[in-house]
Amino acid sequence: MKNIQYIFISNGYRGGNSTFSRNHMLYLNSLKKKIILIDDNPKKTYQNLPKNIKILKVKTNIFYLDTHRKLKKILVNNLDNKIIFITNYAFIIKYFYIFFTLKKNTKIVLTIHSGLLNLNIKNYIAGFIFSIIYRKIDHLFFGSESSKNWWKNYFPWMQIKKNLVHKNGVVLNKNLNTKKVNKKLNISFVGRLEEENNPKFFIDIAEEFLKHKKNVVFNIYGDGSLIKKLKALSKNNKIIFHGWSEKKKIFSNTDIILITSPINNFPYVAIEAKSFGIPVISCSKGDINKIIKNNVDGLIKYTNSKNKMIELIVRIEKNYNFFSKNCLHRSKKYNVDKLCKKFWDSITD
């Protein structure tokens, strides 16, 4: 396909999926490709994108007739060769009619980054429908081995054994030295404040730790539906809610990242932290064990005990230089440009 126009469709949420999309937009933009971004709230979801990326605000997250009309106008009436890039399988169901009545000059690329985090009847039915129609997609990828395994386990008739896994990457920090901890230790939670990330466990750990050690600050970076409830849980001035923040602010004010979700397929924050020399502690199951090498550049322990998590924090603090040095060294395999190139090279004409 020549003279390709790349159309990215997302749903207004800041997180791993939007970061994945952003990385690929920036990569394609560096190759001077024509790009359109369609998002529910693009100015909030994607900030500081290059000006030559065309940005359209469309209510994609909820199925409106107006959304259907706008998408059809953008996708069907556009005569260019098109690659439609999606990271939300639900879009395939919502806009099935539009996607699969497009002309042959269109390819649909979908990357799935997780299973169904809230496995209720409604979501299972949606997943079931997708497991029937997924073959209509031109290229189906997964963001982690654990997300791929989830879909194979719950919908075993899906023939996805040969579908590739493409991981997220980061811009590597050149000439960055091993991070040093100041007298005040900064421990951070970074992510959406939703049940699946279990931010309450982070607060429980913080409250317990601060009973015994005062020269520590626990930072919470992110937004989400639980923010008011979480703020009401603790009035400790050493637990600080920063809201959504720029990467530079987060990692300049963080010594250890704590990931408290019970399942985390391939957390982007863990890769980013490593690229800044910041060790990660996690209690999550999933492909995080492919990012973090236990006792080398971070610590993983499947536990819901706040005291055991505190033990891991103390262990990192005592051997900080060792962990930080290994983080920088092992982050090199997540070079974003190399991973994006590998992704697009795998999409053949």
The residue-averaged pLDDT reads 89
- Major sheet summary line: 6 strands, parallel
End-to-end span in angstroms? 6 Å
Main structural class: alpha/beta
Q: Write out the CATH superfamily name of the largest domain.
A: Glycogen Phosphorylase B
Question: What is the number of helices?
Answer: 15
Topology pattern, helix = H, strand = E: EHEHEHEHHEHEHEHEHEHEHEHEHHH
* Beta-strand proportion: 15-25%
Going by CATH, the architecture of the largest domain would be: 3-Layer(aba) Sandwich
Oligomer: single chain
Which overall shape is indicated by the principal axes computed on the Cα atoms? Answer: globular
Question: How is the CATH topology of the largest domain named?
Answer: Rossmann fold
The figure for the number of domains is 2
Tally the beta strands. 12
CATH class of the largest domain: Alpha Beta
- As residue ranges, the low-confidence spans are none
Verbal overview:
- The protein is α/β, with parallel strands linked by helices.
- The protein folds into 2 domains: 163 residues, Glycogen Phosphorylase B (Rossmann fold, 3-Layer(aba) Sandwich), CATH 3.40.50; 149 residues, Glycogen Phosphorylase B (Rossmann fold).
- Helices cover 38% and strands 17% of the residues.
- The protein contains 15 helices and 12 strands.
- A 6-stranded parallel sheet has the order 3-2-1-4-5-6.
- Helix 8 crosses helix 13.
- The longest helix is centred in the first third of the chain and has 15 residues.
- The termini are close together.
Outline the secondary-structure elements.
Elements: E1 4-9, H1 16-30, E2 34-39, H2 42-45, E3 54-57, H3 65-76, E4 81-86, H4 89-94, H5 96-99, E5 106-112, H6 121-133, E6 139-142, H7 145-154, E7 185-190, H8 199-209, E8 216-221, H9 227-233, E9 239-243, H10 247-252, E10 256-259, H11 268-275, E11 280-282, H12 288-291, E12 298-300, H13 306-318, H14 320-330, H15 336-345
Parallel strand pairs: 1-2, 1-4, 2-3, 4-5, 5-6, 7-8, 7-10, 8-9, 10-11, 11-12
